[in-house]
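JOB MANIFEST
job_type = single_chain_structure
chain_count = 1
residues = 714
[input]
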Amino acid sequence: MTPIEHNQDSGQALVLSSDSETSSLVARLLESEGYATLKCTDPDAIDHCIAEPSPAVIVVDAAIASGDPLDLCLTIRQLPGCDFIPLLLLATDCEEADAARAYDRNVTTVIAKPIDEHVFKKHIRSLGDTGRTISGIRALRMPESNVFQTMPDAFFVVGKDGLLRQYLGGANDDSVLAPEAMEGQLINDVWPPEAAQSMMASIKRVLRSRDGHAFDIELQGQDATQAYEIRLLVQGRDKVLMIIRNITSSAGNRAGSRDDDSRDALTGLVTHDAFLTCFESILVDARLRERGVAVLSIDIDRFSRINDTLGRAVGDAVLKVSGQRIERCLRGGDPGNECLTRVGGDEFVLVLADVESREDVESVASRVQESFLEPVSIEGHKLVIVPTIGISLYPLDGENADELLKNSRVALDEAKVMSAHGREFFSNTMKFRARKRFDVKNELRWAIEKEQLELCFLPRIDLVTGRTAGLEALLRWMHPLRGSVPLSEVIPLAEATGLIFPIGEWVLRSACEHAHSWQPQDAEAPSVSINLSQQEFARDDLVELIRQSLDASGLPANRLELELTEGMLMRNRRAEAVLRDLHEMGVGIVLDDFGQGHSSIANLTSLPIKAIKIDRAFVDGARVPGEQQAICSAIIAMSRELGITVIAEGVECQSQVDFFRDRGCDAVQGFLFSEPLAAEKVPAFLAACSQAVDKTGRLDLGTVCKEVRIKAVS
């Protein structure tokens, strides 16, 4: 046995492996997550290894067993107090049937060798403090029959069907939970529908992923609502260990036992002044001991939308839950080593002392993000809350509190606009990008007020008639000094600052007004299509906003199309209901960039999709025979069978037109026919297009293209 001392406080981890390389790797990964590690290389000494340290997690390398490693796992489970300790099995070439056998022996999860470090750490993080809680109970050395009885947490074994199979004890004095009365009943029968639904979904999730999981629920008592934290740990193939902790009383005691003047009335966290005092103390200690400090600025995305659409009460509840979730992600140990406060409404700042590496901070930041994976249930609303995190480090990014706070916010802004992971460490280059974004943000606000934004329209040509089948509205920002500003710069910034909403409303209103002004009496006038961003599509009032714009402009609903990407439909839980409402109104739905996202044929048949646009990457590859042409042909054939219009976007040469026309594609769109047109030039283009088709008497796209270009610019 080789004990490895560690100052962090996730508990003791026991690693059973005869391979030094595997043992060292696992120990390193466990220590990075705050575990003190004990190694054991002799299977016959396992009972002695487990007797003293009360491990919070046990990792077994299958190669250590002389026979069937599952027999070794069963032996561990039969040792006193090891019934529920998280048990991870490392196995090479483990088939699904072998994994099923392992789960029958109450192995928590099977991890494949060679070890994927990200996967391993993900499983470890998912345990939270569940293992430490259980090992702490073992450390009481009480008789097995009484070991759970005096605990403030309630412990249950629950089946995948929601049956509360066994009440192990704990929380006997909790009259709202009433744990003793729950044994032998179904969760659906003892809890309110919303809480029961969350519980059943979480059970299915952990049994599928083999990860631990934690979430919050509220139960109504006679006098007040009680808040509970639920933690789940897999036990075998079809059951979980459920630990229920009443977090209402602990939050109340914490708030009541300290000076109210030093506490935020809403979240119970320290006030900003008390936080700064703590922060300065941490920095003084860091300078003396030459230790690292990390500052995490944590922002709740789209919080203003929650406040505006659901009301202040729901917004306050979201902030309170957010503070609780972040607080539970702290490392524990000395309370003076970390401090957390709320600033600026929906932003939290967390300071961590004794930081040894970026990996230490990454671990905490990752836990914070993972703690928000479970939707927040408030007043009948299920809200998906997403935090964004900016990080600065002492002494690298600043010598004092002001510098570190400022630079963590610079990193936060960078994470909002640039990061794929929702978190960023500060770097000096961010300052220049931040300054530029600040200038552009102010100028963009000015552009909205001074009407510097413009719409241009890209025609879509019908491959059967040669006439204009539609016009896609494209946004332009004509800066008085910089000229045309690329949308790739405008849209991410607009989304990060909330300006996407006034811009989107202006685009919708203007496009409808222009479309109505073009041949308003012509029943065959083309539709106008508008691209929606993810945030715009998530608006609760989207359907009503579109209805108001149509009514104000007088444009018939069947002449408006909305372009959405496949990913937007997958990420929006209300997508189907919203699309149905729009379809009933008469608005057409166009699926953009088809072929590169996550859609399936089932989505096309279940949702009211009017048309799809083949992704331009496939269209570009259709210039020559090959795989891309085959994909395009398959998409066209499938769509025609389903009665969905097919549009090829990004068409730039005649060979592409010929290919798509021969395959039965309905329409094409691209610079071959026209550059995007200013609104005042659209009527001339429509007329020129019609005249060119009438003149040829047949569909001759070469002549149509030539005539359109001549007459549209004259």
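[summary]
The chain has four domains: 2-138, 148-250, 259-426, 439-712.
DSSP finds 27 helices and 28 strands in the chain.
exit_status = 0
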